[in-house]
Amino acid sequence: MAVGIAATPSENSANYNGRITWFVVLSCMVASTGGIIFGYDIGISGGVISMEPFLKKFFPDVYTKMTQVTEISNYCKFDSQLLTSFTSSLYIAGLIASFFASPVTRTYGRRPSIIVGGIAFLIGSALGGASTNIYMLILGRVLLGVGVGFANQSVPLYLSEMAPAKYRGSFNIAFQLCVGIGVLSASLLNYGVQKIKGGWGWRISLAMAAAPATFLTVGALFLPETANSLIQHGNDHQKAKQILQLVRGTTDVQAELDDLIKASDKSKAVKHPFKQIIKRKYRPQLVMSIAIPFFQQVTGINVISFYAPILFQTIGLGASASLMSAVVTGAVGTSATFLALLIVDKVGRRAMFSFGGIIMFVSQMFIGGIMAAKLGDQGVLSKGYGLLVLVLICIYVAGFSLSWGPLGWLVPSEIFPLEIRSAAQSITVAVGLIFTFIIAQTFLVMLCHFKSGIFFFFGVWVVIMTGFVYLLLPETRNLPIESMEKIWRDHWFWKRFVCDEQDYEKGET
């Protein structure tokens, strides 16, 4: 998603003056709150739909199947299209909003897009907490989805463009870390409000999204625009220089500014970035903008993120124990993401992808095997096997949080040249939301039909995506964004597209 610190063509790391300043740290902390809201919305839905008072009020058929029908399969108790619509409506709204967010982010800047997202979050959380019928409930989720579309479009861009190239990975992973914090916060709140007398605890869960949304909206009013955005949509070189001096902590920023101006001049020659991105020379970026968010969703993480309490009830845990188990997995995911933040710019992206893929695959195979052998349709796992499944799920979450969780946002954010950046980021967000919606809408049906095989299904995808990264994704660690095209020219597969197109264009001139 963003801009950076350029270097001479022969260099592999940034060669600009500057350091990490408190100003850039605080700015990125405010922007990263968008990740907390996104994670909160992911985590809160799985908890509230496991609360009996919530189900009684909005989904009585599901409540009846859960509490009164004994012969139904463990895997089918929560199978309801209306119930999944509550979860997935957020993501289809986010998908549509992301296409409006792209021109806003490109034309008016990253900050206005963040503000729009924060306002939509505020209104959506108010509607959700005050809901008296299913229509208000889903409308609130739709507005939260609008906030997701704008925030996911602009926040990762903002973080990457503000960060020094040497630390870009760590700054960008702060977004995923905040997603994890949001999921954990939601799980803790769900566990805390579940037993409120009167059964209205779910209202607190839905309404509390307003807290981080308020912080994001108010904080964004004081955020500086990125130097890239100022040059791109305002051509204000002097103000961009002042911003660079402020965020880099030095007055010597001319070399970086010159590179940003060059990149902006090139991007302004592109009037239709969506047409530009389908050109042959951008084939690597187009493929990655589609493949990476797709693979991120078919890791199976949404089985945990959306429906962790339901999944734990499926294996025989009670409602309260299921919510506490979701807290445990949320804590593990947040801790592993923090570790990823510390090591990503030292270890590199490809190594983390591979290591995380192996962990996820092995744990999924064991989980599927235990559930197939020990649970059955109407059975209950013993306490020992239930604990073992919980441990394996935590291992799986740790593997995801070290790899596809943060890197699924980071890598797309750093590989797009400025002239196609807004369009490519929009595609990345849209693809991610499309498949998030599909999995959210179909998972309970898949669980009912695949049963324990659902883990083998996602495990196969983990093998495919790990091979994809190993063969087709070059290492991007410490490479300035505006020099990123070099990795495609040197790659054994992608060079045929990039170099052939460049030779063609030279022949045309």
Q: Care to describe what's here?
A:
It is found in: Membrane. InterPro entries: MFS_dom (IPR020846), MFS_STP/MST-like_plant (IPR044778), MFS_sugar_transport-like (IPR005828), MFS_trans_sf (IPR036259), STP/PLT_plant (IPR045262), Sugar/inositol_transpt (IPR003663), Sugar_transporter_CS (IPR005829). It comes from Anisodus acutangulus. Keywords: Membrane, Sugar transport, Symport, Transmembrane, Transmembrane helix, Transport. It is a multi-pass membrane protein. The two termini are 31 Å apart. 57% of the residues are buried. This protein has helices spanning 22-48, 52-58, 60-67, 81-108, 110-130, 134-162, 168-193, 201-207, 210-220, 227-234, 237-248, 254-268, 273-276, 283-297, 301-305, 308-314, 319-347, 349-374, 383-401, 404-415, 418-450, 453-472, 485-489, 495-508. It is globular. With 509 residues, it is an all-alpha fold. Helix content is 76%, strand content 0%.
Mean pLDDT: 81
What structural class results from the helix and strand content? Answer: mainly alpha
If you compute it from the alpha carbons, what radius of gyration comes out, rounded to the nearest whole angstrom?
23 Å
Number of helices, where a helix is a run of at least 4 consecutive DSSP H or I residues: 24
Keywords: Membrane, Sugar transport, Symport, Transmembrane, Transmembrane helix, Transport
Transmembrane segments: 20-40, 82-101, 113-132, 138-159, 171-192, 204-223, 286-310, 322-344, 351-373, 385-411, 423-447, 453-473
Subcellular location: Membrane
Membrane topology: Multi-pass membrane protein
